[in-house]
């Protein structure tokens, strides 16, 4: 089996990608310092796949320890790099934390890739690189807009660094710009497990519905959208995980190319916050307690994807709709309460 290194493998998207890679014949190892994740997620991966995944509890900013991981796994055919801080609001409040963690971690990963001749990298990017867009849906050719927060700027810079370094060295790169991951694995063995206050909408919804939180706040109802709330492209996490496996297949099968390939990962449908709440209520039968608050710094008004390139080039097919996303997120939340 070909080995893939997954940074942030105990995280939300990383763990679902571990499952997808294993189910598609890959051997995997994870690098995750567990600062914003729980080792219990690895137990869920093992239950789903029957495979125990080795995790190196290493911080990517610790170059010496990271190098030892690569030395032990220099037979790897590629790396999928998820590990980064991702909260929009936290990055507004603590920009230096985000630049130091997200960028230094990437620099160290790239130095190890070069030193140990790892031939392929899939980079976890974000639709936030597009900023405030004027024309929707966004395509891979949509130019970067002004970043609305340090998180978004770290992803913009990360893509630019990878473009320069890929040109100068002999590895191949795919940049995956994904939109808003939602939901949990159909088994409910793994899902989004935020440490402290959630960064994403779905766990806020499910934690409110189950009683962990008194109410959900919708940040702004006066945006120039169809119902006044922000519009996002919500996509099932298992669909995103599948795209990472397909991207790695694509890299391994191709001859060397100097410029990173870029793919949007979204459904192509814009959904407002109020519409997402309605979908949750309809799919679960739960009535949600929510209120409208003021706008949140760093939020863009609307963004959703044109996903044609990923479908045509990678052979990517979406399996889940918005109601599936919300229902699986709720089933995961219920399992956490009962575990």
Describe this structure as you would to a colleague.
It is a single chain. The two termini are 34 Å apart. This protein has 11 helices and 13 strands. The strands form 4 sheets. A 7-stranded parallel β-sheet has the order 3-2-1-4-5-6-11, sandwiched between helices. Strand 5 (120-126), helix 6 and strand 6 form a beta-alpha-beta unit. Helix content is 42%, strand content 16%. It has helices at 12-23, 40-49, 63-72, 88-93, 95-116, 150-168, 201-210, 237-253, 273-284, 308-314, 322-338; strands at 3-7, 27-31, 54-56, 78-81, 120-126, 172-178, 180-182, 216-219, 231-232, 234-236, 261-265, 271-272, 290-293.
Task: Note the topology.
Layout: E1 3-7, H1 12-23, E2 27-31, H2 40-49, E3 54-56, H3 63-72, E4 78-81, H4 88-93, H5 95-116, E5 120-126, H6 150-168, E6 172-178, E7 180-182, H7 201-210, E8 216-219, E9 231-232, E10 234-236, H8 237-253, E11 261-265, E12 271-272, H9 273-284, E13 290-293, H10 308-314, H11 322-338
Parallel strand pairs: 1-2, 1-4, 2-3, 4-5, 5-6, 6-11, 7-10, 8-13
Antiparallel strand pairs: 9-12
Helix pairs in contact: 1-2, 1-8, 3-5, 5-6, 7-11, 9-11
């Amino acid at each position: 089996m070909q080995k893939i290194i997954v940074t942030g493998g105990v995280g939300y998207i990383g763990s679902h990608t571990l499952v997808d890679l294993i189910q598609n014949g890959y051997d995997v190892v994870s690098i995750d310092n567990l600062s914003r994740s729980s080792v219990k997620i690895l137990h869920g991966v093992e239950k789903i796949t029957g495979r125990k995944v080795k995790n190196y509890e290493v911080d990517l900013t610790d170059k010496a320890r990271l190098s030892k991981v690569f030395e032990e796994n220099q037979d790897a055919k590629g790396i999928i790099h998820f590990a980064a801080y991702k909260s929009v609001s936290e990055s507004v409040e603590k920009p230096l934390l985000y630049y130091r963690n997200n960028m230094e971690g990437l620099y160290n990963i790239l130095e190890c890739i070069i030193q140990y001749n790892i031939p392929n990298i899939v980079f976890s990017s974000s639709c936030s690189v597009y900023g405030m867009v004027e024309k929707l849906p966004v395509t891979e050719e949509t130019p970067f807009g002004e970043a609305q927060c340090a998180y978004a700027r770290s992803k913009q810079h990360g893509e630019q660094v990878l473009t320069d370094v890929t040109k100068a060295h002999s590895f191949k790169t795919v940049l995956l710009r994904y939109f808003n991951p939602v939901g949990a694995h159909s088994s409910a063995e793994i899902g989004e497990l935020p440490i402290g206050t959630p960064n994403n909408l779905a766990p806020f919804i499910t934690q409110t519905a189950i009683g962990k939180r008194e109410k959900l706040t919708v940040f702004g109802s006066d945006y120039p959208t169809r119902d006044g709330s922000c519009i996002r492209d919500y996509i099932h996490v298992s669909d995103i995980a599948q795209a990472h496996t397909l991207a790695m297949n694509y890299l391994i099968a191709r001859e060397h190319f100097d410029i990173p390939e870029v793919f949007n990962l979204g459904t192509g449908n814009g959904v407002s916050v109020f519409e997402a709440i309605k979908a949750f209520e309809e799919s679960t039968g739960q009535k949600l307690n929510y209120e409208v608050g003021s706008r949140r710094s760093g939020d863009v008004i609307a963004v959703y994807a044109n996903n044609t390139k990923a479908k045509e080039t990678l052979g990517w097919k979406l399996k889940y709709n918005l109601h599936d996303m919300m229902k699986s997120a709720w089933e995961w939340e219920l399992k956490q309460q009962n575990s």
